[in-house]
Request: fold
Amino acid sequence: MATAQLTASTISGRSLPAFDGLRPSSVKFASAGHVRFAGINQRSFRGLVVKAATVVAPKYTSIKPLGDRVLVKIKTADETTVGGILLPTTAQTKPQGGEVVAVGEGRSVGKTKVEVSVKTGAQVVYSKYAGTELDFNGEKHLILKDDDIVGILETDDVKDLQPLNDRVLIKVAEAEEKTAGGLLLTEASKEKPSIGTVIAVGPGPLDEEGNRKPLSVSTGNTVLYSKYAGNDFKGKDGEYIALRASDVMAILS
Reply:
């Protein structure tokens, strides 16, 4: 029988390979303080990630990103729906955009000095799980690499996104309404398509000498892309996805 002994603040015990083999067991508390769980070791927690904002103390009045990093002030989450209904905190959409407030000096690629691709004041969209969140001057910020910024968006409509580096903006094709046999599909049973039309492309990735390489897709191409790639966005006229050009698998014609 597994036991739990309370005496300080660390967790240790005999090893199990992971949570997969963990069986229900009774727990016994002996005294307050140290917690020891038999059957669980540190390796069991390696896949568990808790992401919390790093609080920057008030005595620090500025943050200067280094290299190709960028500091972004995160856009406030929407508190109401389009129709004006107040959303609970759990239902508010986590923003993926904000304003650039500081940039690093750039990086060297070969013999070429490459500047960060965005400027202070730009409104940007970034990858969903990128960067390190900071609580600075009472506001949420994110410090991330230049390559984690998907594009520049100066309006409130995603179709106006200007992709950066090797990113591509695609308008997703409408899901099929019927099966091949003519049966009408419900919303829940419609398969999310992996086909769409390229709306905008970035300037391309950097080669070993720091020069931009053109992308293999162009605006107007109908493409097939990897199903689980990129960042999804809901625009005013449909759904969009921004992904890397390497996630585009074929051009359809």
Q: What stands out?
A: Confidence is low (pLDDT under 50) at residues 1-35, 42-50. The chain is about 0% helix and 35% strand. The longest strand covers residues 97-103. The CA atoms of residues 13 and 248 lie 47 Å apart.
